TrEMBL record:
UniProt xrefs under Pfam families: HI0933_like, HI0933_like_1st
Residues annotated as domain RsdA/BaiN/AoA(So)-like insert: 190-353
UniProt cross-references to InterPro entries, sorted A to Z: BaiN-like, BaiN-like_dom_sf, FAD/NAD-bd_sf, RsdA/BaiN/AoA(So)-like_dom, RsdA/BaiN/AoA(So)_Rossmann
UniProt keyword list: FAD, Flavoprotein
Record's protein name: FAD-dependent oxidoreductase
C-alpha cells in the first residue's frame, strides 16, 4: 500500500489527507497543535467562511496572488465539489450575502470536529502535537520526515504548513524552511489582508467607527493604484475593514504600491460633485441658523464632522449661512477625498494571509508536485498564492489540497503497479 505523509492539518492538509486516504493510500498527518484546523477557527469571525458560490473565473479574479496558477486546481475541485462533498458527509451549509458559505451551525469548532472524525473514519493516522523538524529525500527516493517523536518514511510528502500570519494558530513559516532546504525558491513574504497604519492621529480618536458604502483608494505620486467600494473601520492605529484589507492586498502585489502612500476616502461615492454641492446647500438651508458643524448632522456621522471640516479648512462654529460658495466646494471636495497618509501595515503575524511563498513556477499546477523534487507536493498558503476575503483563500486551500492528495496517492499507486 502506498504511503503519503502530510505536514500541517489546516484546510489544505485535511483535504489532502482525506483525498489521499479515499484513494486507498496509507496517510500520516502531522500537526504541531493539539487540534486540527486551528486557523480555520478564525475565518468568518469564528463562523468558518468555507467558500464562495461565485464562478471559478471570479475566484481567479479575486486572487491577486498568482490566481491563474489555480486554473487547473479549480477545474479539478470546484466550490460546488467541495460543498457536495461536505454535504454528503453530513455537514449542512448555508449561503449568505456576497455568496459567502458558512456551516449551518455558524460554528468553526463544529467544522474542525467534523473533519477530525472524518479523518479518523478514513483511517488517517493523526499525529497531534508532533512538530516536523526536517524533511529530506532518502537515497532510494522515498520521502522522510523527522519529528519530535521520531523519523517517518513515505512514498510521497505533501507540505501544507500555511504561511506566517497568526502564529498562535501554528502558522510560523516552517514550510518555507522545508522548501528551501530541498532547493526551492521562497518569494518575499509580505502581509496581505491587513490593516493600515496611518501617520495622522485623528483616526485614533474615531476608533471603533465604521463607514459603509464608501470608496477607499490608494494613491502614489498623484496616480491612483487601486480602489474598492464597501465598508471600512477606524482603529487605534489607523484604518481597517473589508476595503482596506483588499487595498492591502494590492499594496503587497503591485510594485508601484510602496509606502508611504495616500489613502483617499470618498464618503459620498454615489454622488457627483454637483449633486453633493446641492445636497450641502439644502442641509445648510434647512439648518440656516445653526453652526456649520451642527448643520452637517444629516450628512455625516457626528464624530467625523470636525475632521472633515478641519481638512476643508472651515471653522465649524461659523453659522451655516455664512459659508461661501468656494468653502462649500472645498467641503464637498474633502468629503469625496478625505486624505490619510499610510505609512505601512500592521505586523505580518497579524495578517489574515501571507503574500509570497514557494514559487509557483517550481510547482506543477496540475498535480501540485514539485518540479525539483519528485514525490514532494505543496498545497495551500505555503505556496505563493493569496486571495481576498470572502471564502476565496479557504477554497484555494481545499482545491490545492485535493489535487495534491489525489496526485500523490494515484502516482504512487501507478508506480507500485509497474
Amino acid at each position: 500500500m502506498n504511503e503519503v505523509i502530510v505536514i500541517g492539518a489546516g484546510a489544505a492538509g485535511i483535504l489532502a489527507a482525506l483525498t489521499a486516504a479515499s484513494q486507498g493510500a496509507a496517510v500520516r498527518l502531522f500537526e504541531k497543535n493539539d487540534i486540527v484546523g486551528k486557523k480555520m477557527g478564525i475565518t468568518g469571525k469564528g463562523r468558518c467562511n468555507l467558500t464562495n458560490t461565485c464562478s471559478m473565473t471570479e475566484f481567479i479574479a479575486h486572487t491577486p496572488g498568482h490566481g491563474k496558477f489555480l486554473y487547473s486546481a479549480y477545474e479539478q475541485f470546484t466550490n460546488r465539489d467541495l460543498l457536495d462533498q461536505l454535504n454528503s458527509w453530513g455537514l449542512a451549509t448555508k449561503e449568505e450575502r456576497g455568496g459567502r458559505v458558512f456551516p449551518q451551525s455558524d460554528s468553526a469548532v463544529e467544522v474542525r470536529k467534523f473533519l477530525y472524525y472524518k479523518l479518523r473514519d478514513l483511517g488517517v493516522r493523526i499525529h497531534l502535537q508532533d512538530s516536523v523538524r526536517a524533511v529530506y529525500v532518502r537515497e532510494d527516493g522515498r520521502m522522510a520526515v523527522c519529528t519530535a517523536s521520531g523519523t517517518y518514511e513515505g512514498d510521497a510528502c505533501i507540505i501544507t504548513t500555511g504561511g506566517m500570519s497568526y502564529p498562535v494558530t501554528g502558522s510560523t513559516g516552517d514550510g518555507y524552511g522545508f522548501a528551501s532546504s530541498l532547493g526551492h525558491t521562497v518569494t518575499e513574504l509580505k502581509p496581505s489582508l491587513i490593516p493600515f497604519v496611518t501617520a495622522e492621529i485623528w483616526p485614533h480618536t474615531l476608533s471603533g467607527m465604521s463607514l459603509r458604502n464608501v470608496e477607499g483608494s490608494l494613491w502614489k505620486q498623484g496616480k491612483k493604484q487601486a480602489a474598492y467600494f464597501g465598508e471600512m473601520l477606524f482603529t487605534h492605529f489607523g484604518v481597517s475593514g473589508p476595503i482596506i484589507l483588499m487595498l492591502s492586498s494590492d499594496a503587497a502585489h503591485k510594485k508601484k504600491c510602496v509606502f508611504p502612500m495616500q489613502l483617499r476616502i470618498n464618503l459620498k461615492p454615489a454622488l457627483s460633485a454637483a449633486t453633493l454641492d446641492q445636497r450641502i446647500q439644502r442641509d445648510f438651508q434647512k439648518y440656516i441658523r445653526k453652526e456649520t458643524e451642527n448643520a452637517m448632522k444629516d450628512l455625516l456621522p457626528q464624530r467625523l464632522i470636525p475632521v472633515v471640516l478641519e481638512q476643508a479648512g472651515i471653522d465649524g462654529h461659523v453659522p451655516a449661512n455664512q459659508i461661501t460658495k468656494l468653502q462649500r466646494q472645498d467641503l464637498a471636495g474633502t468629503m469625496q477625498a478625505l486624505c490619510l497618509t499610510v505609512t505601512g501595515t500592521r505586523p505580518l503575524e497579524e495578517a489574515i494571509v501571507t503574500a509570497g511563498g514557494v514559487h509557483v513556477k517550481e510547482i506543477d499546477p496540475k498535480t501540485m508536485e514539485s518540479k525539483r523534487v519528485p514525490n514532494l507536493y505543496f498545497a495551500g498558503e505555503v505556496i505563493d498564492i493569496d486571495a481576498f476575503t470572502g471564502g476565496y483563500n479557504l477554497q484555494a486551500a481545499f482545491s490545492t489540497g485535493y489535487v495534491a492528495g489525489k496526485a500523490a496517492a494515484v502516482k504512487e499507486r501507478e508506480s507500485c503497479e509497474k
